[in-house]
Amino acid sequence: MNESAESSAQNRLLQRMSHLLQRNWRSLVLFIPFFWLLLFFLAPFFIVLKISLAESIIASPPFTPMIEWVEEGIMHIRVVVDNYAYLWEDDLYAKTYLNSLKISSISTILCLLIGYPMAYAIVRSNHTTKHILLMLVILPFWTSFLLRVYAWMGLLADQGTINNLLIAIGIVDEPIRMLYTPFAVYVGIVYTYVPFMILPLYANMEKLDWTLLEAAADLGAKPMTTFFTVTLPMTLPGIIAGSLLVFIPATGEYVIPDLLGGGNVLMIGRILYNEFNANIDWPVASAVAIALLLLLVLPMMLYQHMQARQVEAE
Amino acid sequence: MSQSADYNDRPWLDPDAEPFIKVQSVSKHFGDFTAVDSVDLEIYKGELFCLLGGSGCGKTTLLRMLAGFETPSSGSIVIDGVNMTDVPPYERPVNMMFQSYALFPHMSVESNVGYGLRRDGIAKSEIDQRVEDMLAMVELTQFRKRKPHQLSGGQKQRVALARALIKQPKMLLLDEPLAALDKRLRVQTQYELMNIQEKLGVTFVVVTHDQEEAMTLSTRIAVMDVGRFQQIGTPTEIYEFPSSRLVATFIGNANMFEGRVIENGTDHVIVESKDPACNFYIDHGMSIVEGSKVWVALRPEKIKITKQSETDSNTNSIKGMVSDIGYLGGTSTYRVLIGDGRIVEITSPNLNRPKDGNPPIDWDEEVYLSWEPSSSVVLTK
What we know:
The structure holds two protein chains of two kinds. By secondary structure, chain A is mainly alpha-helical. Chain A contains twelve helices and two strands. Chain A is 76% helix and 3% strand. In chain A, a hairpin with a 2-residue loop joins strand 1 and strand 2. In chain A, helix 3 (91-124) packs across helix 9 (223-251). Chain B is an alpha+beta fold. Chain B has two domains: 2-246, Rossmann fold (3-Layer(aba) Sandwich); 253-379, CATH 2.40.50.140. Helix content of chain B is 23%, strand content 33%. A six-stranded mixed beta sheet of chain B has the order 6-7-8-3-9-10, with helices on both faces. A five-stranded antiparallel beta sheet of chain B has the order 13-12-11-14-20. In chain B, strands 15-19-16-17-18 form a five-stranded antiparallel beta sheet, with no helix packed on it. In chain B, helix 3 (109-119) packs across helix 4. The interface between A and B is medium-sized, with 18 and 25 residues.
């Protein structure tokens, strides 16, 4: 009697536990990535935000603390917005932000102009060729990014491969200055980011129903009209995804403008680096980073919005 | 004048009629594969012409060549007196209804329907009017603002039809127009298609693998196999006078007997069959050498099944035993065992209600099969 009551209580407990586990399984699965993001994305963000609201001092760490205990029971909170005001007043920052946006915008358009026909050609090629072409798009990722940028330095330098070749053929008498110009930066960014344009476009076009293009032709649309009335609207989600994947990282790009542009092409990534390392002004550097983040949040939100709309449509 | 009136419904019989579409020795090769093998075809204005065949027979390739999506490897296609062989699809006076309907998913119903007119630079007010008329005809006016994914299969089919018809094409091509619909809707849509075709007088060319669909829809049928036409004719011609064993078995069911011509008179032919041992007396003469090997095709519904023998001779009559009965309500299908192990299929209407629940003919019963001299068809290939 006693024993059976005990075992039934045990059963009940087991049932409840398994029930609880089942119900909370979903939350548990969601919690792990959520915790990851919280720890490694949100926490650093708040640290940077905190530093951006401090003052620079010569100490370690080189900024004033936000919270100080002046005396027993009295807390002193120091929030300085001077750094943001400084970003606003010194037009170097505004200029650099605008220059970054200009370079990343133009690069995105160039990537689109190059990537769209390439993605189209890959999708329309036969099975074997398709896989080879896709492999070729992905292949550069197998070599270190830094190494590939150095390779471009070798190609573009005054005594580099391209200039030597041009002089040898006799097209030019003296080397064309390419390295340490905006041109080199564009070459570097477009070269590096074009796969990020091609891959989402490819994924999008792969799902495209090609009989729609035949239907348009059948109804009297010339190839150009078919492109603008059917192909382009149908591939718009791919264009947006690819453009954001190029635009967002290109705006904050540091290595390419530094190595290929030298001191001649100012981008925000470089300013950030200078403030942190050369000036050791962490608060201003943090303010620069936060401002950059705000600048990029807008296109990211746009992207999210488009994605949600696409999911809704399907 | 009076003569052309005689041929009103059957222009292909009129020796003076000019065909509307002329396909002349057209072939299409894909690498080593020959999809369409030197076919000739003449279709007349206002016809509802069916290309019928199994998958891979070349019917869709032929349709795509009529639309302009494929260029013939050789031969020519003339539509209404103009050579269209190398004209791109967007310049042909021909529209197509796709099997998948191919509705533009990013456009509303009315945008889809008006797409073709917008390409022709027609005034917006006229486009709106014609779209409205067309939507009214296919009874979709209330769905005009919907996107394709918000429509049912039957509604999508009607949008596709409206979109293809709005430019008033000289010829409408339909690729398996009813394949994506369920059976009940298919039958209903079949008649709708016929009504619309009759109302607008547009020449329809339909590709289908469904013989029943082809029989009900068409004025004429072309039966295709391995890139060639096996037979072109009206549904009745194809069913009652198939030109080959392939056509006879593809359209409906046929019992096929192998035999030899033993007598070839002016008004009759007698074919002797060894297995089963019986003679076929056919009441029309034909140009065939006595002794040559032939096949006799006999449709299941043309065989009479009785319990008593009606004749002593073994001409147009065989004895057998019922091995299977399929009761279908209106008709019953009997599978009768004859000779050593051959099965003959007979379809018989159930004219009377069975008394006391006993069927008129039961399983394992001995029966006699007989048929009229006009019922069987002699086939040489």
